[in-house]
């Protein structure tokens, strides 16, 4: 009952998978001549195969060869694949599969069915039992079955095929011939469908070897126990190995090669198999069926059926796709003479003898020389024929080549005779004249009634300049202005006229070549304009440099006077005087800030602003800048907080520029955040970049103004309130300084909800030799002065 329960679960699982397949909508070819073939493959790995995994190599190679046959014969054939689980082939299971296939293939008509088995006959038997109901009157080409009763063809006239040589008896016969002292054959199989089929074949062969050898069978699934059995075999034993071993310890299939390495590496008796030598270097040999050759035979047989031959008229044969294969190192190990091998045997891994090698080299070189001589002679003949044909067609080809050339160029080209008749004119010239070739013939016939005034005037102009060229009797170059009727503008053409004379000096031909140089002339004007712009840019730079000096000189005098007044006032303690000197100093700082910003923005625009990058801890620098303004910010009734998700981040940046960026953004946050508000400065590490965020709870920025705040001389708040003064340069300078660090700056803001400026900078570190340390740390006095300058447009009065 328990087994039946599991069988029901398995059938339901397979039914579900097949039902999913049935949901796929079939696509029908629009080609009415296309033929459709269904290939049914029996495999123990049905579930995996339907999930899209690759077929096992033997079946895959066979299917590939069948497809190649159709392709080489240029047949328009569509192939569908269907897989059958050969491990579960009970009547109940197959009935369920039949019912599902009946639904799936109800609306599909196939021209032929191909079944592929490997000694298990599951696909073949399925078609024998259900084929006529599923695919009425459809030919079936079977393959891979070991036995076929020819009398069945009378009952199933739609069946034909190529039975597969089991190769097992041939392998055993060859092994016994090469080892005449053999007393027993140790057969290794497993308990799956393939192993059971192999064992059944060998058991049927036992009567052929009665009183000659004894057969021992092993279905041991534990590979290490099987290894012990092999090690204990007597020397008069040979092993027949059928792959598919599993290790019961972990229930995992061990590959053919892996099992061979464990079992046979130290084997003292010879091993034979029909599975091929490429994946098992310990096998002596055996009869091997080549899947590609077998597939080709099946493909050719299918073509016969598709071409109209009745399956009942085709004799069922066995495949010719098998040969003996032997492994040379194993032959030497067991002292087997290669001359005793079956005729036409293939010996793998055999060393190449020197005399054989030299003989092959000489033969190959001789063949290559002969081929080279033939190729050279053929080449000489081809060249001779080519030259002959080229000579015969030279005039025609040259004419076509010339016409193609002159029509492909945008330059205007024409050739006239001395009577002003056009002998040749290219498409560009026709376009300029606004005529076609038919009109050109009319011009030569002096029939110009259908020509426009524009064309007549232009032809007259050309004729006048042609006459000048005739008169000079030399090359005549002239810049002609020709109206462009399409773009309604004048174009300038550099024309070159070449008068040609005969031997007596009489005029014969006039050739004109004209090139449009309008753009070139415009570029000359633009080049002059660029030079003027560079000159004025240089003047501007010099102006800002001079104005900086001229403005800072009186500022320094004012600072000195204020400092003197402050020293004198330290004794008198005049509150009013202290207040007004403070106002004066703050406005001096503000003027100094405006001057510095103007100069720096001018330097950046002209490409003369230089940064000094050095490796520093960005976390420490930003935190130090924020901490330096805490007292000032809190004096305004505003809370300021610095937070980071990383304690240290070494990267290359300009210390002065970074300080100006942070202080400028903090200045804006303080200006536009009322008392009781908050300012948050956060630094986030993103691995290859860092993000510095300065967020406030101020008045915010309208959405329509956010795109312009980084432009020069733009102020969002244009009110006259003194605590919000500004030049409109600060954020523009911040944006430029961020760009010099290859970074980006963006803003998120809403009115009355505050603003957040995010600076993203790439993390890079300078090599030690390039890391010229300019600052060890922030200079305290310098930093205080910088804060006063950057915060100079924040007023308390």
UniProtKB/TrEMBL annotation:
Its EC number is 2.7.13.3. InterPro entries: HATPase_C_sf, HATPase_dom, His_kinase_dom, HisK_dim/P_dom, HisK_dim/P_sf, PAS, PAS-like_dom_sf, PAS_4. Residues 546-765 form the Histidine kinase domain. It catalyses: ATP + protein L-histidine = ADP + protein N-phospho-L-histidine. Keywords: ATP-binding, Kinase, Membrane, Nucleotide-binding, Phosphoprotein, Transferase, Transmembrane, Transmembrane helix, Two-component regulatory system. The chain crosses the membrane at residues 361-386. The keyword Nucleotide-binding applies. The keyword Kinase applies. One of its GO terms (molecular function) is phosphorelay sensor kinase activity. This is histidine kinase. It comes from Clostridium pasteurianum DSM 525 = ATCC 6013.
């Amino acid at each position: 009952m328990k087994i039946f329960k599991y069988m029901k679960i398995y059938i339901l699982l397979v039914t579900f998978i097949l039902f999913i397949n049935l949901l796929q909508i079939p696509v029908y070819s629009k080609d009415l001549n296309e033929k459709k073939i269904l290939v049914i493959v029996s495999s123990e790995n049905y579930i995996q195969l339907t999930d899209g995994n690759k077929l096992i190599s033997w079946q895959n190679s066979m299917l590939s060869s069948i497809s190649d046959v159709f392709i080489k014969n240029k047949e328009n054939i569509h192939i569908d694949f269907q897989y059958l689980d050969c491990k579960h082939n009970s009547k109940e299971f197959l009935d369920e599969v039949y019912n599902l296939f009946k639904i799936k293939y109800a609306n599909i008509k196939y021209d032929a069915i191909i079944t592929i088995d490997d000694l298990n006959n599951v696909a073949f038997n399925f078609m024998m039992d259900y084929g006529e109901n599923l695919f009425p009157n459809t030919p079936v080409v079977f393959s891979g079955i070991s036995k076929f009763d020819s009398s069945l063809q009378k009952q199933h006239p739609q069946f034909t095929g190529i039975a597969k040589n089991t190769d097992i008896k041939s392998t055993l016969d060859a092994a016994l011939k090469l080892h005449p002292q053999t007393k027993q054959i140790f057969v290794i199989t497993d308990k799956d469908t393939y192993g059971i089929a192999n064992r059944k074949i060998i058991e049927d062969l036992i009567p052929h070897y009665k009183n000659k050898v004894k057969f021992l069978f092993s279905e041991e699934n534990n590979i290490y126990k099987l290894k012990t059995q092999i090690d204990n075999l007597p020397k008069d034993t040979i092993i027949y190995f059928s792959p598919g071993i599993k290790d019961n310890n972990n229930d995992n299939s061990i590959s053919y090669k892996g099992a061979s390495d464990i079992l046979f590496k130290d084997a003292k008796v010879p091993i034979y198999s029909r599975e091929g030598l490429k994946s098992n270097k310990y096998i002596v040999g055996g009869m091997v069926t080549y899947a590609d050759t077998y597939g080709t035979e099946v493909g050719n047989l299918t073509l016969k059926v598709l071409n109209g031959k009745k399956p009942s008229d085709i004799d069922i044969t066995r495949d010719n796709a098998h040969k003996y294969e032997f492994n040379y190192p194993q032959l030497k190990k067991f002292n087997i003479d290669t001359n005793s091998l079956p005729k036409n045997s293939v010996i793998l891994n055999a060393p190449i003898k020197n005399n054989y090698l030299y003989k092959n080299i000489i033969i190959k070189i001789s063949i290559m020389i002969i081929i080279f001589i033939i190729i050279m002679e053929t080449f000489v003949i081809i060249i001779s024929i080519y030259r002959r044909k080229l000579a015969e067609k030279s005039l025609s080809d040259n004419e076509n080549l010339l016409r193609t050339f002159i029509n492909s160029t945008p330059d205007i080209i024409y050739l006239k005779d001395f009577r002003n008749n056009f002998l040749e004119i290219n498409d560009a010239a026709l376009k300029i004249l606004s005529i076609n070739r038919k009109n050109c013939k009319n011009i030569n016939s002096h029939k110009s009634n259908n020509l426009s005034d524009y064309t007549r005037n232009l032809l007259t102009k050309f004729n006048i300049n042609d006459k000048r060229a005739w008169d000079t009797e030399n090359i005549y170059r002239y810049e002609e202005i020709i109206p462009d009727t399409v773009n309604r503008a004048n174009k300038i053409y550099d024309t070159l006229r070449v008068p040609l004379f005969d031997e007596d000096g009489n005029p014969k031909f006039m050739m004109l070549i004209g090139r449009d140089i309008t753009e070139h002339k415009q570029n000359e004007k633009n080049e002059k304009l660029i030079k003027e712009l560079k000159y004025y840019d240089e003047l501007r730079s010099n102006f800002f440099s001079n104005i900086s000096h001229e403005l800072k000189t009186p500022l320094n005098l004012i600072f000195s006077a204020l400092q003197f007044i402050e020293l004198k006032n330290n004794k008198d303690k005049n509150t009013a005087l202290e207040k007004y000197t403070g106002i004066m100093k703050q406005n001096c700082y503000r003027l100094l800030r405006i001057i510095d910003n103007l100069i720096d923005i001018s330097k950046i625009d002209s490409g003369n602003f230089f940064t000094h990058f050095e490796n520093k801890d960005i976390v420490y620098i930003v935190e130090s800048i924020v901490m330096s303004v805490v007292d000032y910010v809190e004096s305004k009734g505003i809370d300021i907080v610095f937070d980071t998700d990383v304690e240290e981040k070494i990267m290359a940046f300009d210390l002065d520029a970074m300080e100006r960026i942070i202080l400028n953004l903090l200045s804006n946050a303080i200006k536009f955040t009322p008392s009781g508000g908050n300012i948050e400065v956060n630094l986030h590490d993103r691995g290859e970049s860092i993000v510095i965020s300065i967020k406030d709870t101020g008045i915010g920025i309208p959405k329509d103004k956010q795109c312009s705040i980084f432009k020069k001389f733009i102020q969002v708040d244009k009110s006259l309130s003194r605590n919000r003064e500004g030049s409109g340069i600060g954020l523009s300078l911040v944006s430029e300084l961020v760009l010099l660090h290859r970074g980006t700056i963006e803003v998120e803001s809403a009115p009355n909800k505050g603003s957040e400026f995010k600076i993203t900078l790439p993390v890079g570190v300078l090599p030690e030799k390039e890391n010229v340390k300019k600052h060890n740390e922030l200079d305290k006095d310098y930093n205080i002065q910088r804060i006063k300058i950057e915060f100079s447009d924040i007023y308390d009065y």
